[in-house]
Amino acid sequence: MKTIIYTSIFLLSTTLFGQEELNPDTTRVNMGKIEIILVDHSNEDLEDEGEIDTLDAIPDEDEKERFEAHWAGVDMGFSMLLNKDMNTNFDNYPYWKNDPARSMTWNVNVLEHKFAIAKQYFGVTTGLGFSFTQVAFKDNYLLQTTGDSLFATIDTVNVYSKNKLRAAYLTVPVLLEFCTHADEDKSFYLAAGVVGGVRIASRVKRIGEYDGKEFQEKLKGTYGLNSFKLDGTVRLGYGSWGAFASYSLLPLFDTAKTTEVYPLTFGLSLNF
User: Fold this and answer.
1) What pLDDT score was predicted for residue 17?
2) 167-188 confidence digits (pLDDT tens)
3) Among 148, 101, 130, which Cα is nearest to 201's?
4) Counting Cβ atoms within 10 Å, is residue 148 exposed (0-12), middle (13-18) or buried (19+)?
5) Is the N or C terminus of the chain more exposed, i.e. has fewer CB atoms within 10 Å?
6) Is 105 in contact with 132 (CB distance < 8 Å)?
């Protein structure tokens, strides 16, 4: 009987004096100057087994200091060749008047790192990528090179449906990047700087027709291409999508072999 009475008094006092929940596992009961704290240990076994982990929700210091850049991803663009006066006039070198609609550039940017200056909002971005560029000739030009010159002649026998000079580069950017939001998925971004590159492969690819039959040629060679490139670039966008434009600060070809040629490239980006 006493047990029932004491239990009733305890429950009544709990109701009268109130209780405060600290967290889902802890309850505090106030009775005048007396405070009783009730702790529920029923979930401890689950935490020991790894089924409940309340610490993983709290970011550690490394996660707080990791800021996302806008470089890693894929770029797809189109290129036109310009002379030193930044126009497309090549009166003495008509073969450099390329077909921009078929002169495509693909950039596969695989690594990125952002050195934060003002948290996520401003920093220096660098990384590593690969650039695959191609120059599409408008006519049936045969690109030729000798020891001291690079030129092209018209092929009057074959008709080419595809006639391109291709080159692949290993690239490294150095960009100043501005962002409007700490969450990259909700952020507008603007990045400007330079992208340096070293040529790792080049060749000419032609697909043509002769005597009613299709043929294909793949001819490896340097074709007077510079071993290095340096592009000034601007990149902007929102979240994962963006646009970019690049202009070559170094001539595409060795100027001792042909005139100065500078590619201008613009296109779209998908950031990872």
Assistant:
1) 42
2) 999 999 999 999 998 887 889 9
3) 130
4) exposed
5) N
6) yes
Whose tokens are 């007396």? That residue is 34
At 83, list the tokens. 């002379």
Upper half-sphere CA count for residue 158 (Cβ side, 13 Å): 19
Q: Which residues pair with 29 in a beta bridge?
A: 19, 36
Q: Is 112 within 8 Å of 127 (Cβ atoms)?
A: yes
DSSP letters spanning the chain: -HHHHHHHHHHHHHHHH-EEEEETTEEEEEETTEEEEEE--TTHHHHHTTS--SSTTS--HHHHH----S-SEEEEEEEEEE-TTSS---TT-GGG-B-GGG-EEEEEEEEEEEEEEETBTEEEEEEEEEEEEEEEBSS-EEEEE-SS-EEEEE-SS-EEEEEEEEEEEEEEEEEEEEES-SSGGG-EEEEEEEEEEEEEEEEEEEEEEETTEEEEEEEE--TTB-SEEEEEEEEEEETTEEEEEEEESS-SB-TTTS---EEEEEEEEEE-
| Angle ∠(124,81,158) on CA atoms, nearest 5 | 135
Give, in order, the Cα–Cα distances in Å from 241 to each of 22, 146, 245: 44, 44, 14
